[in-house]
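Thought: the user asked what Sodium ion-translocating decarboxylase, beta subunit looks like in 3D. I have the sequence; next I should run the structure tool and report back without guessing.
Action: structure_tool
Action Input:
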Amino acid sequence: MDTLFLEFFQNTGFYLCDYRNIIMIIVGMIFIFLGIAKDYEPLLLVPIGFGMLVGNIPIFKGLGLGIYEKTSVLNYLYFGVTQGIYPPLIFLGIGAMTDFSTLLARPVLMLLGAAAQAGIFITFLGALALGFLPNEAAAIGIIGGADGPTAIFLTAKLAPQLIGPIAVAAYSYMALVPVIQPPIMKFLTTRKERLIRMEDPRHVTKREKIIFPVISFLLCCFLAPAALPLLGMLCFGNLLKEAVVTERLAVTARTALIDIATILLGITVGASTQGDVFLTQSSVKIFVLGALSFGIATASGVLFAKFMNLFLKKKINPLLGAAGVSAVPDSARVVHIMGQREDPSNFLLMHAMAPNVSGVIGSAIAAGVLWSLMI
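Observation:
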């Protein structure tokens, strides 16, 4: 009886567990707490956090249970991450939810979304300096775009062994937008600048809204063909939304389809963070670089808005530059809140959505450029 009990105990997770599993389980619980109690990107952090719990249950190798074992169910689901299937589906849903009216009403704000992508390329150079291979550095740099699906898509193509830390870093900083961005925004702007009011945007016709996804897709993908899977789905989703006659498809894309893709991506990315795979020196470097990248992207957008004001008669509120990172719609919401702290009657949200959605396009183009450079 004692022998049977000992054999049973040696097959349990309590016996097989080591400190790295415990650390990642605690991190997973923190993610779940932040998602539920603090409402920080709950649709992302809760699946990823629970996935961390799933991935760090100690098991015997060879039973076909672990996410890295070829015959396991988790491995089949993880195929959508490693082959870049889930991110384009999420982009399809984002396109079906996005209104490009404010961007079309004042196209100059698109430059703020482009400026914020500076964090991607500066971090790319920083990763190279820290000894990462060029393809790994390119994948790490994309964290600065603050776009989880884009980061996962590019990493799957260039450095699949880094999907876990890069995905967790990207989504962590997306969730922490309300914490990270405000101090940078306040430090780089004066109260007078934060009080600048934006004029009401012009009316955008339905024809313009329908033409935009077609023309922008052609222009962007001729510029960066490697961005085709992401931008193609983003623009297609937006066309479904604006065409009206395809509203049924648009509703599916922005509800059921994006929810399913988000659940599968979140749980499998979380499960890929097994302690023995995730807790490495490279992961620590990636998190540090990711934080710097996000800070640089925010600062670049704000500073470029201040630079633009040197030449514009109708000044831009520099806070809008922080919305250039593609954490939709959180960074736009943070800009709006920061503006209202100075003047409760100043509504910046609809204006901030212009650089915000252009940041989504910009991060996808940047990913395509980096991918093509690594080929």
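Thought: the tool returned a structure. Summarizing for the user.
Final Answer: Structure for Sodium ion-translocating decarboxylase, beta subunit predicted. Residues 20 and 276 are 6 Å apart (CA to CA). The two ends are 61 Å apart (CA to CA).
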